[in-house]
Amino acid sequence: MSAEPLASWNDGPAKQALLDFAAHAEASVPAGDRIAVFDNDGTLWCEKPAYVQALYLLQRLQEQAADDPELAARPVTQALLEGDLEAAAAQGLGPLAEVLLATDAGVTAEAFAVTAAAWLEHAPHPHFRRPCADLVYAPMLELMALLRDHGFRVFIVTGGGVEFVRAASERLYGVSPDDVVGSAVEVELERRDGRIDLVRTARLLGSPNEGAPKVINIQAHVGRRPIFAAGNSAGDREMLEYATTGTEHPSLAIVVDHDDADREFAYEGKAMTDPSAEAIAETAARAGWTVVSMRDDWARIFPEA
After folding, report:
1. Which domain holds residue 235?
2. Could you tell me how many helices (H) and strands (E) the chain has, helices first?
3. What is the C-alpha separation between 236 and 215, in angstroms, rounded?
4. Residue 277's pLDDT band (boundaries 50, 70, 90)?
């Protein structure tokens, strides 16, 4: 990474807003209150043509279906393995979640982390043909570095699986696993060979970490209101609102706009759990949040190979 702050950002209002905010916060906000939260999918790494964890789950499902005729015969499994996500979703959230959550049921938390980290390092992205771990956004890595240089503590607050992101958060983002908040599966305590293990189940712990649950889980995990938040979809709306309302400190929310079909993808960020929610671009315009155009504001998308 370049020593120049935000070196992968083009000069413009978005870059200047970030530089001004970081400097102002360092000068006026107590260190303990300099909290920044980042969504992950579509904000820190590429989420198309499917969520990174979905690609991982599909590979695990393919491996298991090859050895389990009953699993392979399920309509939802067939749709997933054929790449027809719409048909899979039409089977209902219950059957879909049951199949996907079962892919690593019975695996210890430690073994899952090792498997997930190895997969990220080696599994090729279906579009870019580079390991998924390479497809983090260089400008956002620089933004995290800028905030840290000005005394911020940086958290990832993801709708994805918390253990999946924790498996690579330190290497990819410099974020300790302790500082990752996300959706979680239930684990059970088992005694195996004279030791206690935590074993993954096929049950989700609470609600998916999107929308209002992001704010609730920030309070439960972080215990402080952030003054900076970054997201890219309607599922991040409440988190962005939380960071920019109810605080006496300067605050900033940014929305990453995927408008670069040439270098990445062009699409509207929708909420997975509420697809009918208002477009995040409309919310940002009304709230006065800073919209970051991937096409116009980023000189490059990914780190060099």
Report:
1. 13-45+134-186+205-297
2. 13, 7
3. 9
4. confident
